[in-house]
TrEMBL record:
InterPro entries: AraC-bd, AraC_XylS_family_regulators, Homeodomain-like_sf, HTH-like, HTH_AraC, Tscrpt_reg_AraC-type_HTH. SMART domains: HTH_ARAC. It holds the Pfam family HTH_18. The keyword DNA-binding applies. This is Helix-turn-helix transcriptional regulator. GO terms for molecular function: DNA-binding transcription factor activity; sequence-specific DNA binding. The keyword DNA-binding applies. Residues 180-278 form the HTH araC/xylS-type domain. PANTHER family: HTH-TYPE TRANSCRIPTIONAL ACTIVATOR RHAS (PTHR46796:SF13), HTH-TYPE TRANSCRIPTIONAL ACTIVATOR RHAS-RELATED (PTHR46796). Gene3D superfamilies: Homeodomain-like.
Length: 288
């Protein structure tokens, strides 16, 4: 069974396991995969995506990049980005690295490229080396002492890949910065997300202007964004923790477990319990 959240795994809120500065996952989807829905977002980790078969586009820092087979994407911590993937077979390896680790690496000589988002297409020789490193990393536990050096080596290697030229977007690249206080508050305390008026006050904007600007920049209302953020975070906790559904619902600010279940089913087309059961039946990312 294809889990619905795997249509958008590169857009979920990220919670690295304690003691694990690295998270890696390999995703393969078949002909049944739907085109992905937009959800503009950012993470507090550095993110690398090594695509195999893929089509669609990637938006970051005010530019749009066409995604073609074997493209690679890098996004620094806290940079706004989004993916729109075409329907049909596709696959990628996702690497997420703790923000502090990535920042240190990005300030080393020759690594300045890691301070900005980019899309690139490695030649065949470099692609084979990247795939070899990714395979090795996937075979390790996240807490293995070799995991972080291998992740850093991957990041060092991708800066050698030739750029894919991006198309400048009409939207204001700095527009999200005015909204960050509200988004940061949601990310820190998802169960206590501010309402639209409080969110506007955090951004020193009027409620009407905040709502209009948020919809323009993110593509959905503030309340829709809050709900989507919580549901994606819940989907990850269902798979990666043993917390009860009721505990997850309460911790993320849903009124009741039944209300959470209704919203989850509406978003993903499956109940939280069935979702967790299907996730446990899947092979792990290291076995895919």
């Amino acid at each position: 069974m294809a889990l619905p959240h795997l249509d958008r795994p590169i857009c979920e809120p990220v919670e690295l396991q304690p003691g694990s500065p690295v998270r890696v996952e390999r995703i393969r989807q078949g002909r049944e995969a739907n085109a992905s829905d937009p959800f503009v977002h950012f993470h507090d980790v550095h993110e690398l995506v090594l695509f195999g078969r893929v089509g669609g586009h990637f938006d970051a820092d005010g530019r749009r990049y066409a995604l073609t087979p074997h493209a690679i994407v890098f996004v620094p911590s806290m940079h706004q980005h989004d993916f729109a993937l075409d329907a049909g077979p596709r696959g990628w390896t996702l690497l997420q690295v703790e923000a502090d680790v990535g920042e240190v690496l990005a300030h080393k000589p020759g690594m300045e490229r890691l301070r900005h988002s980019f899309c690139a297409r490695p030649d065949r020789a470099l692609r084979q080396r990247l795939e070899l490193l990714a395979d090795w990393l996937l075979a390790l536990e996240a807490t293995d002492p070799l995991a972080l050096p291998l992740a850093e080596l991957l990041l060092c290697a991708i800066v050698r890949a030739p750029d894919i030229e991006g198309e400048k977007l009409a939207a204001d690249v700095h527009g999200l910065q005015r909204l960050r206080p509200a988004i940061d508050q949601l990310r820190r305390h998802p169960a206590e997300a501010p309402g639209a008026e409080q969110a506007a006050a955090l951004c020193a904007l009027s409620p009407a202007y905040f709502s209009r600007r948020f919809k323009q920049q993110v593509g959905m209302s503030w309340s829709d964004y809050v709900r989507t953020h919580r549901l994606h975070l819940a989907s990850r906790r269902l798979l990666e923790t043993t917390q009860s559904i009721a505990t997850i619902a309460d911790a993320l600010g849903f009124a009741t477990p039944s209300h959470f279940g209704e919203l989850f089913h509406r978003r993903f087309g499956i109940t939280p319990g069935d979702y967790r059961q299907a996730g446990r039946a899947r092979p792990t990312s290291r076995q895919q």
